[in-house]
Amino acid sequence: MSAVDTTDLSWDNLSWDNLSWDSLGDERVLVIVLLVAAVVLTGERTTWHVLRNVVTIAHEGGHAVAALLMGRELAGIKLHSDTSGVTLSRGKPRGLGMIFTAVAGYPAPSLIGVGLAALIGLDRIQWLLWIVVGLLAILLTQIRNAFGLLTVVGTGAAAVAVIVWGNDRTALGFACAVTWLLLIGGLRAVIELQRSRRAQGSGRRGGPPVTSDADQLAWLSHVPGLFWVCVFFAVSVISIVAGGWLMLSWNP
């Protein structure tokens, strides 16, 4: 019977520098831990009020991109301290272009989250970070108020700091955290949308509503606002499932 070398099993040979994701078990543990953290932090009112600003950036970015794709003239974006935002564009007040612009906001965080999750699954973490920085830089050119400027610059600075000073583990953790925030936060934003509509008695007939995207879409499309909320909800849930699967398939 051959001898077994047990040298590597001694505690003297173990150090944090020698540990890798494989020796710790699996990087999937990190993805799951950050999922739990995202659920907890977006579920707590104080932390959600801060983190929701990132979701609002993605939401208003979705409106802006859709407006440009529909040939509308983008007039600027404002982000407010209450985590609300507004994207102004010029063009026909009704029609397909306006409907597409209005519908793009709530799905945007979830769809961006899926895109980031795909990059994580492909082990393109640095690509992900630079794409985030690039998109924020483009968005910055359209910001029209001081708080919006501070929010976008602060978010971009965090990504740049990870690129410059973070190691591979830090970059992966940051990428997964942002992705889960967009995915889980996107769902919570939709839930809040319906709660707000119910509290305000949405669905009133008359002129164009200004309280929510769903009610604006109801006025533009003659389809009930609740239908649009259900569409947003379905996109959010499917995105969470798809994004989670993509991140858990990470294979460096």
Automatic annotation (TrEMBL):
Keywords: Membrane, Transmembrane, Transmembrane helix. The chain crosses the membrane at residues 28-43, 96-119, 125-141, 146-165, 171-191, 226-248. InterPro entries: Peptidase_M50B-like. This is M50 family metallopeptidase. It comes from Kineosporia corallincola.
